[in-house]
From TrEMBL:
Comp. bias intervals (Low complexity): 145-167, 227-237
Name by which UniProt lists this protein: Uncharacterized protein
Residue ranges of the TM segments: 12-32
Pro residues bias spans: 66-125, 194-209
Keyword Magnesium: no
Keyword vocabulary terms for this entry: Membrane, Transmembrane, Transmembrane helix
Ranges where the record places region Disordered: 61-215, 227-249
Length: 351
């Protein structure tokens, strides 16, 4: 049997190691001492109830300070004696105002003359009698050989060149020029001593010519309009077209429904929705509207701006729906050639 020396050497080494370990475990306590642990300290514990703990942790009550007494106001100082008023200055004597001269009242204008003559005649003296010619008063003279008969002063009746009417009397503009241009009446002169003269024969009074009335522009305009209406033919001549009977209710409703389909009132303002407009339109024989003839002939219920807006909406509806021609009977063209439509947001009528 062959021995392997290296195997035995390992056995020896392993055994020696195990022996050393066992010796350290057995004898290791001799060379190592465990550290001493500190002794825990004991504390006294006291148990409290919740009420006692709340009383201990509550902040101490602080007594409210007593209110301070109100300050005593200092006595008011005695008022100083008022100063003696200064003596009032003596009033300065005002000079007496000079008397204002009273303006003389303007003389009243003479009453309007009732007679119209080519030349104006002033108002006669109150004592004078109305006569065709003016004549001074003559007193009888008994000293002369030939006795001159006494004659009273005469004057022609007052006349004017203007026709006085009620409108002229009440119109301040027509009276103003006469009042401004009327001269101030002069003082009545002293009567001269009568001179004995031979009285001229009294001429015959000329016949009064009728006064020429002022032209009335209103009457002339009315007369011209009547003459023009008489010369103008009563109806405009148009080519012969079929007249036929009037449109029936169903035909009117058909035209109204056709126009109403294109009548959009959604874009109208609240004021325009309360406005009713009446539109007139001339139709062609093919049923198409003449665009240039569409016009507004009346409106009610709104302002002018609202009426224009409602009319434009109605005009677009007629043009849009009438572009292909309305379904109207040709044999009744004279009845629907001129149409009036009333566009009312509540209802629409056709005439």
């Amino acid at each position: 049997m062959v021995r392997l020396p290296h195997i035995e050497t390992g056995t020896y080494i392993s055994g020696a190691g195990h022996l050393a370990l066992l010796a350290w475990l057995a004898l290791g306590g001799l060379f190592y001492s465990a550290p001493e642990l500190p002794v825990p300290s004991a504390a006294d514990v006291v148990l409290f109830s919740e009420a006692e703990f709340a009383a201990m942790t509550r902040a101490p009550e602080v007594a409210e300070p007593a209110p301070a007494p109100p300050p005593v106001p200092a006595p008011a100082p005695e008022p100083a004696p008022p100063p003696e008023p200064a003596p009032a200055p003596e009033p300065v004597p005002q000079p007496e105002p000079e008397p204002v001269p009273i303006p003389e009242p303007e003389p009243a204008p003479p009453p309007p003359a009732e007679r119209v003559a080519p030349e104006p005649v002033p108002q006669p003296e109150p004592e004078a009698q109305v006569a065709p010619e003016r004549q001074e008063a003559v007193t009888p003279d008994n000293s002369g050989a030939e006795a001159v008969p006494a004659e009273e002063a005469t004057a022609p009746e007052a006349a004017t060149t203007r026709i006085i009417t009620e409108a002229t009397e009440t119109d301040p503009e027509s009276q103003a020029p006469d009042l401004i241009a009327s001269p101030r009446p002069s003082a009545r002169p002293d009567r001269p001593r009568p001179v004995p003269v031979e009285a001229p024969p009294t001429p015959e009074a000329p016949p009064e010519t009728p006064a020429e009335t002022a032209p009335d522009p209103v009457a002339d305009a009315v007369a011209a309009a009547v003459a023009e209406a008489a010369e103008t033919p009563s109806a405009v001549s148009r080519p012969d077209v079929p007249v036929g009977p009037p449109l029936t209710a169903s035909e009117r409703d058909g035209l109204r429904v056709a126009v109403q389909q294109c009548w959009n009132v959604g874009s109208l303002s609240s004021d325009a929705l309360r406005t009713t407009v009446t539109v007139a339109v001339e139709m062609e024989q093919s049923g198409r509207p003449v665009i240039n003839s569409i016009r507004m002939i009346g409106s009610e219920g709104g302002s002018d701006a609202a009426a224009r807006q409602a009319f434009e909406t109605a005009r677009r509806a007629i043009i849009r729906c009438g572009s292909a021609g309305f379904d109207l009977p040709v044999e009744k063209y004279a009845q629907w050639r001129d149409i009036e439509m009333t566009f009312n947001p509540e209802r629409m009528r056709i005439r």
